Structure prediction request, 360 residues.
Amino acid sequence: MRWSLVLIAVVVLATGCATRTSDSPWRELSPPQHDARILEFAPAAEGILALGSIPAGESRTPAAWTTTDGTHWKSVPVHPESPYAQQAELISAGVGDRTVVLGQAFGGAHSNPRMTIWSGDAHGLQEYPQAMEMFGGPHAIAVTTAAALRGTDLLIGDWDGPEGRYGAAYWTSPNGGDWQRHAEDPALSSAPGEQTGAAGVTTGPDGFVIVGETLRDNVLRPLEWTSPDSVTWQRHPLSGTNAVAARVACGTTSCTVFGQTLGANPHVLCWPTIDSEPLPGPSAPTVDTLQALPTPTRLLTLTALDHSVALHSVASNCTDWQQIPLPVTAATARMTTLPTGLLLATTDDTHTRLWLHALP
Prediction:
C-alpha cells in the first residue's frame, strides 16, 4: 500500500503562498506568523490548534493559532498573568469540554523548567497561576504532557513521592484552573524497590491512556496505565525488557504503543495490543520516539534517529514499516492530518517551517 492512502484527504492544496519543488511531494507553506515556533498540534472544534512561541531576541512570548487548511491562520489571544507565563513556550494541549495547555519557561536560581497552565478555547487562552509547589519546588521532577476528556483536564509527569521514591504522577482539574496532584496513586507511583516514570498520554475509546516504564532490579520494563475517568487506574505491564514505552496512538477501537529499547543497538518498538510482543522498527545509535498519529488505515510515527527526525508509515499490527522522505533535515518535528493532507512542522532553535504533503 502506498503510504499516501493513509491520509484522510484526496485533494491537493494549491495556494499562492505555498512553494513546491517539482520533484517533491512536500509543499512549503507560509507560517502563521513571522518567526513562529510551532511545537505541538492538537485537534480542536475550530480545526487544528498549533502551539508554540514567538522568539524575541533572548526572550520569547507564548503564541497559539488555529487553521483548517494549513494556509489560513487565526491567532488565538493568550493572556499571561505570571512573569514566567509572559516568556513561556506552549508545548502540549488536551481538548475536552475546554482546551488545557501546558507552557514552559526556564529561569530562577537553577534555570529549571517553570510550568504554566492555560485554559480556554480558540477565542483565547488564559493562564491560571499556581502555587509554586503544585508543579514545582523541591519535590518536582517533571511535568510533560496534557490531555483532556470531557470535563476533566489531566497533566502527567514525575514527582518525588512518599519516602523519597520518585515516580509517575498526574494532576487533574475540573475547570482548568484548580488543580490536584496525585503522586501516591497505587497503580502509578513507585512501590518499594521500583521507580516508575510517565512519558506520554492520550485519550482512547476507553478513557485516558498513559505510557512509560518501571525500573526494578536495574531492568527497565515498559508500562501502560488506563483509566475511564482519571480516578481509578489500572497498570498493564508490556512485554520486553530494557525498553520504555514513549507514545501511544488511539483510534476508535484500540490503541497502539510506540517506544524504544535502551543500551547497545537501540531500535524502535511497537506494541499492537497490551498483551502482544513488541515488534521492532528502525534502529540508530540513538532513538527517541517523538509522536504517534493514528489514521483510518495505518499509523504515522515521527522518531529522532541519531538526532535527525524520520517519518514512517506503519500497519496497524506494527508491521510493514515504510519510511517517508522528509522535505528537510530536522532535529524535531510535529505532524497532524488536515482535510487537505498531512501537515508537518519542522523546527529549529529560532523558527518553524511548515509543509503539506501533496497527494497525487
